[in-house]
Write a structure and sequence with these properties.
Blueprint (H helix, E strand, L loop, with lengths): L1 H5 L2 H56 L5 H14 L3 E7 L4 E3 L1 H4 L4 E2 L2 E2 L4 H14 L5 E6 L2 E8 L9 E8 L1 H51 L14 H51 L5 H33 L7 E4 H9 L3 H6 L3 E6 L4 E4 L1 H18 L5 E8 L5 E8 L33 H12 L2 E7 L3 E9 L2
Parallel strand pairs: 9-11
Antiparallel strand pairs: 1-2, 1-7, 3-4, 5-6, 6-7, 8-10, 11-12, 12-14, 13-14
């Protein structure tokens, strides 16, 4: 029971929604902590590179001016830092001493790195990276999570006795603080999203599975024999409406099958009971009355033989139908002359034309070949002709035809009678087991009521098209379309 609960649609939908929400949150975390930070660092480096190149170029031009002096550089550095509050600009000598701004170099000001503007260890790190690069072009060095440095070596002029270095510190403390706030907010958002996902997924899964629960309850009632259940209802989804219609159709068909099963059972019981009763009665008569009278004994024993044959035919038909439907009786197709074969089967009905006044007309084209199981097709032809004999009109006329259709590749076999015909509402039920027409009729040949059902099952197994055309008061025509070989 526990395993079924974990495999229920309700639980799977709940877990799926929850997993989807967790997946989205995980992607958000990855984006913020990895991709967004990497993007930010790349932007910082790109901006610092642009600022450094611009400052380097401008200071280099000031140094080449005839009117060059420290005030010019100090003023430019002050203006550049005003435009970019996140940066600190220094010009250092090769010992790391601050040359510009001059007020820092004179010890009149200090920043976070101490007197002189630049920490010695930091300058050593930057100087090492610059030397390793082997170029006067600037390099960017990451000092820590909050500070990056752009450094470049100025070309030595004739008036200079030492190398000069541009040193620009870029602080990202404000940005890092914003990242920290975003992470805290993301934690809160994650908790809220998970909680909301739990509620929404639970409500949605219950809403989606509610119709299924209704179908299940109705199906259980139907399984107990209650075919009054109705699967249709007001559903929010078109798929549920379609499923309800399908289940209602299945219910109707199962109900018909149940009624048919009861009818078949009643008919089989009656058909078995009647010959058994006759056999017992006539056996008692032979024993008690006609045992010494040869003429009466012969009549009574013939009745026993006839009823035994009828009982045997019924049992055989039931067994054949069961075997064909279950697939135990496999088909053995072969190519044969259908025209000649039909003539052979019709010879078995010659006693009807000779002794009972039946007319059996034949409209059979010669040498029409087909491929099928010849034994099964014999049952089809015999049962269709026998059905026509049982239901034909007072003129006792039956027409059997076999013709090639205009569209090559098919042969039409048909058996027509002149009976009262079949009402339109009964055309779909005549192929059912133990179908009984509402019209009265005589049965000059022995029948079990399973003939048309056997015909239907055999033809379906072959994949052949079949049907019936009927008009009330004018008779019926049963037909089969065989493939021509």
């Amino acid at each position: 029971m526990k395993g079924k609960r974990f495999r229920s649609i309700n639980f799977i939908l709940w877990i799926s929604f929850l997993g989807f929400a967790a997946f989205i949150l995980a992607l958000t975390w990855v984006f913020q902590t990895t991709l967004l930070r990497k993007f930010f660092v790349d932007e910082v480096k790109s901006e610092l590179q642009d600022i450094g190149s611009e400052v380097y170029g401008n200071i280099a031009r000031l140094q080449r001016l005839p009117s060059y002096n420290g005030d010019n550089v100090d003023n430019y550095i002050a203006l550049a830092q005003y435009d970019n509050p996140s940066i600190n600009i220094y010009v250092l000598d090769e010992e790391g001493n601050c040359l510009y701004p001059t007020d820092i170099g004179n010890g009149e000001a200090s920043d976070e790195y101490g007197i002189g503007g630049v920490d010695e260890e930091v300058f050593s790190l930057v100087y090492g990276e610059l030397s390793k690069a082997g170029t006067d072009k600037g390099v960017i060095v990451r000092i820590d999570d909050s500070n990056y440095v752009y450094s470049a070596r100025f070309a030595r002029s004739e008036s200079q006795t030492t190398d000069m270095y541009l040193y620009i510190n870029y602080s990202t403390e404000l940005s890092n603080s914003a990242f920290g706030i975003m992470q805290k907010e993301l934690v809160i958002v994650s908790v809220v999203v998970i909680f909301v996902a739990l509620i929404i997924s639970a409500l949605l899964s219950m809403e989606l599975t509610k119709p299924i629960a209704q179908f299940t309850r109705a199906a259980k009632r139907m399984a107990k024999g209650d075919f009054t259940v109705d699967f249709k209802g007001k559903y929010a989804y078109a798929e549920m409406d379609a499923l309800a219609e399908t289940l209602d159709y299945a219910k109707e068909e199962i109900g018909k099958s149940d009624e048919l099963q009861k009818e078949v059972l009643a008919n089989v019981t009656h058909d078995l009971k009647t010959p058994l009763t006759m056999i017992k009665a006539y056996a008692s008569m032979i024993q008690e009355i006609s045992g010494d009278d040869p003429e009466k004994r012969a009549k009574h024993t013939q009745v026993i033989i006839d009823e035994s044959d009828r009982l045997t035919a019924l049992v055989n038909d039931i067994l054949n139908l069961s075997k064909i439907r279950s697939g135990m009786n496999t088909l053995k197709p072969s190519v044969f002359d259908l025209s000649e074969f039909i003539h052979t089967v019709l010879e078995r009905f010659s006693y009807l034309t000779e002794t009972m006044g039946y007319t059996l007309e034949r409209e059979i084209e010669d040498e029409l070949y087909t491929e099928a199981d010849i034994e099964k097709i014999e049952q089809v032809i015999y049962n269709l002709v026998g059905n026509a004999v049982n239901y034909t009109g007072e003129d006792k006329k039956i027409v059997v035809s076999l013709k090639r259709l205009p569209d090559k590749g098919r042969i039409r076999f048909a058996v027509s009678d002149t009976g009262r015909g079949i009402p339109p509402e009964e055309l779909d039920t005549i192929w059912d087991r133990y179908y009984r027409s509402s019209e009265t009729h005589k049965r000059p040949i022995k029948g079990t009521g399973l003939g048309l059902s056997i015909v239907k099952t055999i033809l379906i197994r072959h994949g052949f098209e079949y049907g019936v055309e009927s008009e009330v008061g004018k008779g019926s025509t049963f037909y089969v379309l065989f493939p021509e070989k």
